[in-house]
Amino acid sequence: MRAFLFGLCALLLLPSAALAQSDEYTYNSYTRDIKKQTDAGWEELQAADASATHEERCRHASAAVYSYNQAAQTSATLAQVLSYRGGEYYDSTVELRDAARDIAQQVEDMYNEQCG
Predict the structure, then answer these.
(1) Under a CB-based contact definition with an 8 Å cutoff, are residues 79 and 97 in contact?
(2) What average pLDDT does the segment 42-71 reach?
(3) pLDDT for res 42
(4) Which of 12, 23, 55, 84 could cross-link 89 (Cys pair, CB 3.0–4.6 Å)?
(5) How many helices and strands in the chain, by DSSP H and E?
(6) Can you give the pTM of this predicted structure?
(7) Cα–Cα distance measured from residue 102 to residue 76, given in angstroms and rounded to the nearest whole number
(8) CA-to-CA distance for 87 and 1, rounded, in angstroms?
(9) With 60 as the cut, is the pLDDT of residue 106 above it?
(10) Is the pLDDT of residue 17 over 60?
(11) Listed residue (30, 10, 11, 32) closest to 22, CA to CA
């Protein structure tokens, strides 16, 4: 009987372990995408800084705004996906989402100031 109860308890824990792995996979997958988007934005900002003409600077800055806004949107989507269970991945995602939004807003403000 004890073995049966132990086995039953183990089966009940499997879904939560699977969900934790699922959260980890989801988090890692989305954060890879966010990193690619922020890296692309950073490269565009560097290209804008190195540009010779105002038009070229603004074109690169516009691409940077787009990349950082995509990263902010992706992080918001991740937060929404993980919100129903909470936990460490969700907490980390909320911080990531807030930081991504702040950076996207700063880059957009800079673009509006420089390129109008």
Answers:
(1) yes
(2) 94
(3) 94
(4) 23
(5) 3, 0
(6) 0.78
(7) 12
(8) 34
(9) yes
(10) no
(11) 30
